[in-house]
């Protein structure tokens, strides 16, 4: 069977996630089986987990361009909420192979971590994968909320998510675009 489109959902059976290496071994074959025009683009997946870290669902949330992907919180948390997940792992790839997180990667991880805590579905890891390896925010102890100063710096350099400031009734608030 020839695959012409990216795989959107993955059946994981009775698999459990114990480390970022488990995530890499699960998603690297998916990345390698993605056909060429799509393999060169950033993909963002969510892995919904139960309380014992058993995989409930894996979904391709969005596919972007060569160096960026638009990430909407509603899309990230929609399926985990429907599947009654109690934990979430966010995974995205770097088509160029560089496994160092960019400022926008750090901002996205921080923002999704904050939103997950508010929704009672904590993001327990954010993993960057390539065809060769992976980078885990949790293993590197980088899965924390950024200080306000760093958030403002990241939004100026951002390529993964963008904000638009909206002024309503004298209030300044941020909104995902």
UniProtKB/TrEMBL annotation:
<keyword id="KW-0482">Metalloprotease</keyword>
<keyword id="KW-0479">Metal-binding</keyword>
<keyword id="KW-0645">Protease</keyword>
<dbReference type="Pfam" id="PF04002">
    <property type="entry name" value="RadC"/>
</dbReference>
<keyword id="KW-0378">Hydrolase</keyword>
<dbReference type="InterPro" id="IPR001405">
    <property type="entry name" value="UPF0758"/>
</dbReference>
<dbReference type="InterPro" id="IPR025657">
    <property type="entry name" value="RadC_JAB"/>
</dbReference>
<dbReference type="InterPro" id="IPR037518">
    <property type="entry name" value="MPN"/>
</dbReference>
<feature type="domain" description="MPN">
    <location>
        <begin position="16"/>
        <end position="143"/>
    </location>
</feature>
<keyword id="KW-0862">Zinc</keyword>
<protein>
    <submittedName>
        <fullName>JAB domain-containing protein</fullName>
    </submittedName>
</protein>
């Amino acid at each position: 069977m020839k695959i012409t489109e990216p795989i959107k959902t993955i059946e994981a059976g009775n698999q459990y996630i114990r480390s970022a290496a488990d995530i890499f071994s699960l998603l690297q074959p998916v990345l390698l089986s993605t056909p060429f025009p799509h393999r060169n683009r950033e993909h963002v997946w969510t892995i919904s987990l139960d309380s014992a870290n058993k995989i409930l669902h894996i979904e391709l949330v969005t596919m972007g361009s060569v160096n960026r992907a638009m990430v909407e919180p509603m899309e990230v948390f929609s399926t985990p909420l429907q599947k009654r997940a109690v934990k979430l792992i966010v995974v995205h790839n770097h088509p160029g192979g560089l496994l160092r997180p960019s400022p926008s990667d750090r901002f996205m991880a921080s923002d999704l971590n904050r939103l997950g805590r508010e929704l009672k579905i904590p993001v327990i890891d954010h993993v960057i994968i390539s065809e060769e390896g992976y980078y885990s925010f949790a293993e590197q102890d980088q899965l924390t909320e950024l200080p306000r100063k760093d958030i403002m710096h990241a939004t100026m350099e951002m390529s993964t998510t963008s904000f638009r400031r909206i002024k309503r009734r004298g209030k300044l608030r941020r909104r995902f675009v």
